[in-house]
UniProtKB/TrEMBL annotation:
A divalent metal cation binds at residues 158, 203, 258. HAMAP family: PdxA. Homodimer. It comes from Pseudogemmobacter humi. The gene is pdxA1. InterPro entries: PdxA, PdxA_fam. The keyword Zinc applies. The active site is located at the dimer interface. Pathway: Cofactor biosynthesis; pyridoxine 5'-phosphate biosynthesis; pyridoxine 5'-phosphate from D-erythrose 4-phosphate: step 4/5. It is found in: Cytoplasm. This is 4-hydroxythreonine-4-phosphate dehydrogenase. Belongs to the PdxA family.
Amino acid sequence: MRPVALSCGDPAGIGPEIAVKARAALAGELPFFWIGDPRHLPPGTNWTEIATPAGAAAVPADRLPVLPLAFAQEAVPGQPSGANAEGVIRAIERAVALVREGAASALCTAPIAKKVLIDGAGFGFPGHTEFLAHLAGAGRVVMMLACPQLRVVPATIHIALREVPAALTESLLEETIRITHAGLIRDFGLAAPRIAVAGLNPHAGEGGAMGDEEERMIRPLVARLAAEGMLIRGPLPADTMFHAGARVGYDAAVCAYHDQALIPIKTLDFDGGVNVTLGLPFVRTSPDHGTAFDIAGKGIASPASLIAALRLARDMALARG
């Protein structure tokens, strides 16, 4: 298959070192190449320059295929520099272009530091996901966190908890569910995906005793989608829908807010969780962690989430055909 493109992320973070570790773990199993400045790779890294993604196939297994992209300056692990912010943005843009033109099968992104990009290059997006949607000309996209035991989708994401009830509108929740449903079919190969929808309030509102969002909005929406033929259940009490017995009854859980979704998956698989963007015209995954400036350059960063993200990118690309 065509190789997966891996954008470098912030070069002062753990992205470069876990890319090298991922290559050592996946060589011979999964073709991918790294887009970034070779000066930012850990000292002693064996790497080979490639001119196009197709060249990655000929690179020996003990070397990292690199599509070079010059940055303004060398990077110091743990010390992010605004001078390199433009390079980080260009690496993402280059990766997206290669995936969209068919030279790469999927995109995997190493972590970025949004404040560094904003301060250093006037980055005008809340995060990676919104920037990718902009580059793709896509409408609303949805964040999914996935591991072998669980897939979760938060309907609202990076907002204060007090803002969630107003933000969780019927139209937002419906759009989130429909994008999730389509993504499970297209990207995960599930012909008839099963979706569980969490309630907003404790005990899913307990019939209106602890809030009326479930009875007023969520339950009628779920009933309407079920009447269309969607395999969907809810609203379900969030405190009882993530144990092992409950998880076998659905393929993805749509949750009301950030922590309701992320706490269970990070409890189940902290190192192996993968961030997936649904609704893009190409496959995008990312490790479910940040730049980890505090441990960058020390050689102790785990590549587990990046390895899982690369494998899932490959599997999703194959599901899309």
